[in-house]
Amino acid sequence: MKRLFIILCVGLTALSCWSRSDRFKVDIDKALKHPGRAQDVYAETVSIPLQGLEGIALGQEIRLLDVTADRFFLLDKEKNEILIFDWNGQCATMIAMADSVIDFSVYRDRVLDVLTEEAIIEYSTTDGTFLAEYPIRDLDVMLKRVARVTEDGIFMLGTQDGYAYDVSYLISKSRFYPAARPASDYLSTHAFVPASECQNSRFFRCDGIVYSFGSRSGQIAQYTDDYFICVPYQWDFGKRAPVFTNVQKTTGKIYLAFALDGKDYVLVYNLDNRRYKVVDYDTFPLGVIYAGRNYYFSPADRAIICHTL
User: Fold this and answer.
1) CA proximity to 74, closest of 98, 52, 50
2) Would you place residue 16 in the very low, low, confident or very high pLDDT band (cuts 50, 70, 90)?
3) Residue (of 223, 226, 228, 207) closest to 271 by Cα position
4) Which end of the chain has fewer CB atoms surrounding its CB within 10 Å, N or C?
């Protein structure tokens, strides 16, 4: 167990080893002078109406939180229920949670990990069958996000005493391993990353790899199978300070949703040629990108909207 904790700390220490030359420079003001168009971002839009909701009164706060090869997962925050739909939009099942759902994510299309204040609870993605429960004990960190990275390891993001924390849970050891995240040079005035970086942070996946992002910096962390955390992507926005609300990735591009001066945008950054464009969020609501498609829930249409990228 000590060895795992040391490995985690070494991985976190790597966060401070990136120099400024490794950052991707983005001039947001210049990009906003020549904003991109929806047709520059995606090729096709398809609406998938949600069905099988007879007798189910949806709450006012519905969020699409994850996608698999044949399922959509929505959280009815008001009713504390997880709704599972197939790709035809038919409601497959519903999971009514006893404790408030904080976050959830899907591991390898087969396990749904749900984070509550009391435990991490796992369900089958196919039919919502209960699989396992890992109680949260002796942990002072306020957990906010969850993602399983390996068969034996689950990672979480949280805050404690004004700082951002990375927490790993080793299933075979039934133990949590918290560690404050050391600040890299973009936050050199702090010994550790401030809690504000976790304001909107979430885990996301691309090509089987798990990532998370910082709300204030946009900095992207990558989680490896051997429990290292590295930082493959950092940003330099000059004097601008956008607040990031969502980040997704494909093999060649990174999509960053952000708020700036009271408006919402999406930055599309091409990793191959380092070119980028900014589009209005209303023309491209960033949701969950899966297999080259962007999915988001439209409350007005009661449908899942799919953009082919």
Assistant:
1) 50
2) very low
3) 207
4) N
